[in-house]
Amino acid sequence: MTQRDRFEAIYNAYYPAIHQYAARRTSSPDDTADVISEAFLTAWRRIGEVPEGERALLWLYGVARRVLANQRRGASRKGVLADRLRAELVADRPVEPVDLEYVRDAFDELPERDREVLALACWEELTGEQIAKVVGCTTLAARTRLHRARRRLAAALDGKQSPTIVMRQP
């Protein structure tokens, strides 16, 4: 039996169980689909480590459990970041509320590569060395990418910047 045949047999046999497992533990169909796809992607990548027979289902449950834990940690980090950002915005808020849509527009106009390193640095608070590991390059290259991405974002904001915005350097 080829690796593909083995994976397909595992998928066909245990998809319903993993689907139910994920659906009972998530709040949306999208989250359920994410858990299922990550669990089976892990199985595909590590097909040689997947146990035989019924133990494969238990192995998949373990993988799905870890995927769910990662989802929860990500949601928790997102919530903490949102709370921190709200607090910072309240502290820096001018008298009149400011429409920050232009910031989102400027960020969205950047190439994906720039958005990724900016997000890793600002949202995930990763260092240049950590960003290098995530994106698969040298530390120097990651720092250079981040520097250039910041310059491109600043240039994009210069063309869109509202005169009432308060900008802070971290």
Number of H- or I-type helical stretches = 7
The N- to C-terminal Cα distance equals: 56 Å
CATH homologous superfamily classification of the largest domain: RNA polymerase sigma factor, region 2, helix turn helix motif
Taken in chain order, the helices and strands follow as HHHHHHH
Kindly state the percentage of residues in helix: over 70%
**What is the global morphology?**
elongated
Q: Regarding CATH, which class of the largest domain?
A: Mainly Alpha
What is the mean pLDDT? 85
Total domains: 2
Radius of gyration, whole Å: 22 Å
Please provide the count of β strands.
0
Let me know the largest β-sheet: none
Question: Please, could you describe this protein's structure?
Answer:
The chain has 170 residues and is mainly α. Mean pLDDT is 85; it is low at 163-170. It is 75% helix and 0% strand. It has helices at residues 3-25, 29-45, 55-92, 101-109, 112-122, 128-135, 139-160. Helix 1 crosses helix 3 and helix 2 packs across helix 3 (55-92). The protein has two domains: 3-77, Rna Polymerase Sigma Factor, Chain: A (Orthogonal Bundle), CATH 1.10.1740.10; 96-160, Orthogonal Bundle (Arc Repressor Mutant, subunit A), CATH 1.10.10.10. The protein contains seven helices and no strands. It starts with a helix and ends in a 10-residue tail after the last helix.
